[in-house]
Design brief:
By secondary structure, the protein is mainly alpha-helical. It has helices at residues 2-8, 17-25, 27-35, 45-64, 70-94. The protein is elongated, with a radius of gyration of 16 Å.
Length: 95
């Protein structure tokens, strides 16, 4: 019980945006993983490139913010990985 209470009251616990931001942020990489099953002709190269940039910027933010938000960092690192894979698929389909 003491562990749960300390997590609840921590600066990165469920009472803060440091917790809920990444929780809802996981919807982006999960949607990108689902999109890997679609044909590469449906991929928007512009949007995928922008998502790569977005995730790179927010990985840096998650590392620099105090308290350091590792949950957000992992979320955006996963998104960056999936988006780079999608960008590869797009460029490969373009020839």
């Amino acid at each position: 019980m003491k562990i749960l209470r300390s997590f609840w009251n921590s600066p990165i616990g469920p009472k803060t945006t440091h917790f809920w931001g990444p929780v809802f942020g996981w919807s982006i990489p999960l949607a990108a993983v689902a999109d890997t099953q679609k044909p590469p002709e449906m991929i928007s190269g512009t949007m995928t490139g922008m998502m790569c940039g977005y995730s790179a910027v927010f990985m840096r933010f998650a590392w620099m913010v105090q308290p350091r938000n590792l949950h957000l960092l992992v979320c955006h690192a996963c998104n960056e990985t999936v988006q780079l894979y999608q960008l590869y698929r797009f460029l490969n389909a373009q020839g």
